[in-house]
Amino acid sequence: MKIGLFIPCYIDQFYPIVGIATLELLHKLGLEVYYPPEQTCCGQPLANSGAEKEAIPIYKNFVRNFSNFDYVVSPSGSCVYHIRENYDLLEQTNEVRKVRQTTYELCEFIVDILKIDDLSIEYPHKVGIHQSCHGLRGLKLGNPSELIAEHYSKVHRLLEKAEGIEIINLDRNDECCGFGGTFSILQPDISAKMGKDRLEDHMRNGAEVITATDMSCLMHLEGIARRHNKEVQFVHVAEILNSNHL
Amino acid sequence: MDRNKILYNIQRNEIVSIKLPNPIDLQITGINKLDIFKKKIPQTGGDCIEVKTTKALITYLNEHFTYATNFREKEVFNEFTATYPTERLAILKTVIIDGQFGVAENGSVWINDSNFPNRLIPFITEVLVLCLNSEQIVSDMHEAYIKINNDITGFGVFMSGPSKTSDIEQHLVYGAHGAKKLIVIIYHENVVE
Amino acid sequence: MTQHNQKASLFLKNAERAAWHDETLWMVRQKRDKAASDVPEWERLREQASQIKMHTLSKHYEYLTRFEEMAKNNGVQIHWASTATRLNEIVYQIIKENNASKVVKSKSMLTEECGLNPYLEKKGIEIIDTDLGERIIQLRKEPPSHIVMPAIHLSKEEISELFHNQLHSEKDNSDPTYLASIARLHLRQKFLESEVAITGVNFAVAENGAVVVCTNEGNADLGVHAAPVQIHCMGIEKVIPRMSDLAVFIRLLARSATGQSITTYTSHYLTPKPGGQMHIVIVDNGRSELLKKADYRDSLKCIRCGACMNTCPVYRRSGGHSYHYVIPGPIGSILAPHKHRNNYKDLPFASSLCGSCSNVCPVKINIHGQLYRWRQDISKESTFFHWKKSIMKIAGKILSSNTIYNLSGKVTRWSIIHLPRVIIYNRLNIWGKDRELPKVSGESFKQWYYNKYEKQGQNGQK
Q1: Which of A41, A86, A193 has the CB atom closest to C317's CB atom?
Q2: Are residue A170 and residue A211 in the same domain, yes or no?
Q3: Where are the domains of chain B?
């Protein structure tokens, strides 16, 4: 199995530690991982702002870099969602189709493709899981509270077996944190309010650590927490999954 | 003029035809519809009373709704008309009507023109009493519309509990404009005392 | 700054009120969840409802003309209005022909959309909105902020003051039961004196020409059965094929809107009362144009339940008036730009695209998908956001070229680390208004990877 590692632009620039954790974890799982050095971005920031046409060169760069792998894995639900859902704008060559079908977010890759849910993790902390919207509703990483169906969550499944972990219950299980990409700049007051409310929900329920599949959500929540001098830590799920005895 | 314009514009689209799905018929069995119906009524703000027989129903109505306007009685029904002046209808305080059937999933009762001589009656009264045969209860709205079988007369309504509103700070208040109280009296027809 | 954001900021300034608004509507969303989970076949119902509506839209001509034919057979007078003005003119004509001046109206978002009330008032007609929430905002002379709970933005104290000033209720008595009883008395008079009653239409059944109206208060029925003339105003998209289809929608509507299993009254009007008149006005006002747009015609499936508003984290924190359109929230944000692209170009951006709205929609409109689509269409117009287009083009070049991307990243990180706080957190730094920028190190992942692997000629091995 040849894995292509996609590290989103903002993780590359601001949170390399998440990329490192992802790479280390995939290595521990015995996989052959390649990191195409010419990769840049999935194009979502432009597309969500209404400039999907201007994003085409970015899409093409992505496909060019990632068309030769069995799977493409990324520690980002929203980027993977964007590739699967919105790359229909490109001409659907075999290459494009393949990339769209084989790009996976990290947790769903481990659960659905590797079929592993116990990573021998040790993580003795009270953890709040923020279920990022694109991963939850877009990639169906779990069942959102508003859908009337059997409850499941791939992220919970991977974390609940961790030694010492206590996953807290939230008042609102899956409300959006308010990042929304350029929404955070175009609607800063609503965005900040949504973030503050999410943060308070986690803290009210005892979270020491807040985790998510998307560093963008965590960046937003952490920005608010640090501005208000809150003690809670923000750790991407890749880092928690990598705290293991593998 | 407008009609042609609108219809012409409607036809000028290229929507691919999509099949109309078959009606849903859940055919629910093995549930106690009466029990579910009785439990549902207080949730809608209504009152539910059960009497044993048709005779017991008459007794109950005479005792508890002595001064009500009882449209189950032919003479009363015929006294009012479809064009009765609204001011005279406005003084109705308690009204008794036959309900045709109840719907267990939502505690509603179906009534139509055959149950009252004037359509304003079930709405203008302060208290509405609906008499319902215990065997005339369906499980859900799919069954309900099958039972109605397109025979509505000119006006029919599902009534579920008294009139209500939450428009003031989401506080639930009964008696917004229609009946302040809705009482469903269930009687058993084939029980002999 | 966009319009929605400016109004939303104002809304948030009253922190207590904003928190109440958010909490209250979240409770309604939870009531919806409870009611929906009581129906094991809930998701199947949604799919059925969606298919019924899509089928009907694909055979719109047949169903509308069939509805007209059946209604006419029932003794109903049918009118067609291609625009908002035509609706208003037709309704006024009916009122005039009957020498009427006293009109009552139950909830109709369509008449709100067409501006019926101001039109009739200019002609000297007294038109009273009889839904309690609608009457409150009518007395306050403001638009509704939610399509099901029009006065949700008001406190009971504000309503008490309003009723004291306009209906002579007791001063400072803000007990909701008391206030509702004042409204009941006040509006009862209006019902009994009414000469024409106007309603909206929830569903119009082609099979038999029936008009179905769902209320909790009974105000539609009080007006319709008291007044000699009844007028029902419906958008063309309200038609559904059969009575059996009603079962699906009735089961979905109240549960989605308020968490009730059914509204108090589900009224089916087929014929005029003896000696009375029944009119139906079928209104287009842009809907047939929307029918032609493959990307957006799905929004015509809407049954106006408001569930999308209750679940939307943005709507709950910004209030309906922030959307400055007759229908707010997610559905409003995809309907409004169709009406007037320039006036409402901000609305598709007033969303984080979380997708919750699409999941609660009882007829499965892909609301968040349409918001995304509108963003593309609005941005395409060169007259809008032309400065944004240039920035986007530049961003496109930066993010598709590895070299430029790496360089830009380096510069950004260097600035965050080395520039003084007072320079970084200036007024232009919108992110920095309420948030800290990320803590960055000197090295990107790419640099780390290069130093660890590529330098040694490795790529892919452990």
Answers
A1: A193
A2: yes
A3: 24-187
**Would you say residue B105 has pLDDT above 60?**
yes
Residue A214 belongs to a domain: yes
pLDDT for the residue numbered C440 = 82
Alpha-carbon torsion (C363, B9, C295, C342), positive or negative: negative
Do A63 and A136 belong to one domain?
Answer: no
> C72 and chain B: CB distance < 8 Å anywhere?
no
Last residue of a domain, one of A113, A143, A171: A113
Structural domains in chain C, sorted by start:
1-34+305-384 (no CATH), 39-285 (3.40.50.10420), 399-456 (no CATH)
Please tell me whether the interface predicted TM-score (ipTM) of this complex is above 0.90. Answer: yes
Substitution target in C349, C435, C453, C461 with the highest count of A β-carbons within 10 Å is C435
Determine, yes or no, domain membership for A164. Answer: yes
Query: What is the rounded average pLDDT of the residues C282-307?
Result: 96
In terms of residue numbers, what domain contains A45?
2-113
Name the packing angle between helices C176-193 and C219-226 (round to 10°).
20
Q: A186-236, pLDDT tens digit by residue? A: 899 999 999 999 999 999 999 999 999 999 999 999 999 999 999 999 999
Chain B residues whose beta carbon lies within 8 Å of the beta carbon of residue C291? 9-10, 13, 15
Give strand ranges (E) for C148-242.
196-199, 203-205, 210-215, 229-235, 239-240
Q: Quick check: C264 and B178 in contact, CB under 8 A?
A: yes
Select from A54, A174, A178 the Cβ nearest to the Cβ of C392.
A54
Burial A92-124 (b: 16+ CB within 10 A, else e): eeebbebbbebbbbbbbbbbeeeeeeebebebe
In sequence order, the 6+-apart residues with CB closer than 8 A to the CB of C252 are C45, C46, C49, C303, C305, C362, C363
Mutate which: C73, C262, C291, vs B, most B CBs within 10 A: C262
pLDDT tens, position by position, C114-165: 999 999 999 999 999 999 999 999 999 999 999 999 999 999 999 999 999 9
Please check whether residues A83 and A147 belong to one and the same domain.
no
Q: Identify the chains in contact with C, defined as 3+ C-beta pairs within 8 A.
A: A, B
CB-based contact C320:C145 (threshold 8 Å) = yes
Q: Which of residues 127-166 of B touch C (CB under 8 A)?
A: 140-142, 144-146, 148, 150, 152-166
pLDDT band for position C396 (cuts 50, 70, 90): confident
A246 or C362, greater pLDDT? C362
Contact across the interface for C156 and B168, Cβ inside 8 Å? yes
Q: Token digits for A97?
A: 């189709």
pLDDT of residue C319: 95
Say yes or no: A15 and A83 in one domain.
Answer: yes
Query: What is residue A127's three-state secondary structure?
Result: strand
| Residue A136 placed within a domain | yes
* CATH number of this structure's domain B24-187: 3.40.50.10420
| Nearest-angstrom CA–CA distance, B131 and C75 | 31
Average the pLDDT over A8-18 and give the result: 93
Rounded Cα gap, residues C308 and C357, in angstroms: 5
CA–CA distance, C295 with C290 (Å, rounded to integer): 9
**Predicted local confidence at residue C412, as pLDDT:** 81
Which residue, C59, C100, C93, is CA-closest to C77?
C93
Contact state of C222 with B123 under an 8 Å Cβ cutoff: yes
**B20 phi, psi to nearest 5 deg:** -80, 120
Is the same domain home to A147 and A106? Answer: no
Q: Do the bridges between strand B94-98 and strand A233-234 make them parallel or antiparallel, or are there none, so unpaired?
A: unpaired
Residue A224 maps to a domain: yes
Over 90: is that where the pLDDT of C2 sits?
no
pTM for the complete prediction?
0.95
Same domain, A95 and A180: no
Total number of domains constituting chain A: 2
Q: Are residues A104 and A196 in the same domain?
A: no
